Amino acid sequence: MEKIYQGKTKDVYSLGDNQILLQFKDDVTGENGVFDPGANTVGLTIEGAGKSGLKMTTYFFEVLNKLGIPTHFISSDIDKVQMIVKDAKVFGKGLEVICRYRAVGSFLRRYAAYCEEGQPLDSFVEVTIKDDERGDPVISEDALEMLGLLNKQQYQELKELTKKICGIVKDELAKKGLELYDIKLEFGHDKTNNQIILIDEISGGNMRVYKDGKYVPPLELEKLFLA
């Protein structure tokens, strides 16, 4: 098993045969010791965060796979905090696709002159470049095409897939009285057939969820959701 990448919240190992092992860690993104799913730096370490994230990720990927949504998920081992996935090639150096149902986080910081915190949004989708040095800048559909990252057809496919996936996640959370405010996804090409698939994770570490108007932290979210 060869370690090929050390990420903020996961270490990545090659298993051969187009399979990858993800080792979840207890590091989470944020700033000054405060968790923030939109941050691009490790802000703190929370004991049990890796296992909590893997439990939610396993739940959601199994749901998506049963519904025929293309993902990289193969299997997981909760005790070892590991997930085996299909090897995938990211777009460029990596893109993040955000779906927003309410105005919070960076959306609110950018557009606060035109909206209020928590204002409803109609599953608004935006794409950012994974680039820590430049603060993961938002990129437009035209720029994605001009820079050779996504063509128009791929962009529409990614947008539609994002809305479908996030709608499923939102509905699943709503069953437990939880409201999804926003969520960040990642996609890539399956190296075996070039199909666009969902990669990375779906957990409290990459979404903002509220209950009765109050933000629910990642570990508490997993306990409420999977109880």
Automatic annotation (TrEMBL):
Enzyme superclass (EC): ligase
Gene3D superfamilies noted in UniProt: ATP-grasp fold, B domain, Phosphorylase Kinase, domain 1
Enzyme Commission number, as recorded: 6.3.2.6
Residue span(s) of domain SAICAR synthetase/ADE2 N-terminal: 3-215
Keyword terms of this UniProt record: ATP-binding, Ligase, Nucleotide-binding, Purine biosynthesis
Pathway: Purine metabolism; IMP biosynthesis via de novo pathway; 5-amino-1-(5-phospho-D-ribosyl)imidazole-4-carboxamide from 5-amino-1-(5-phospho-D-ribosyl)imidazole-4-carboxylate: step 1/2
Catalytic activity: 5-amino-1-(5-phospho-D-ribosyl)imidazole-4-carboxylate + L-aspartate + ATP = (2S)-2-[5-amino-1-(5-phospho-beta-D-ribosyl)imidazole-4-carboxamido]succinate + ADP + phosphate + 2 H(+)
Family that this chain belongs to: Belongs to the SAICAR synthetase family.
Name of the protein described by the UniProt record: Phosphoribosylaminoimidazole-succinocarboxamide synthase
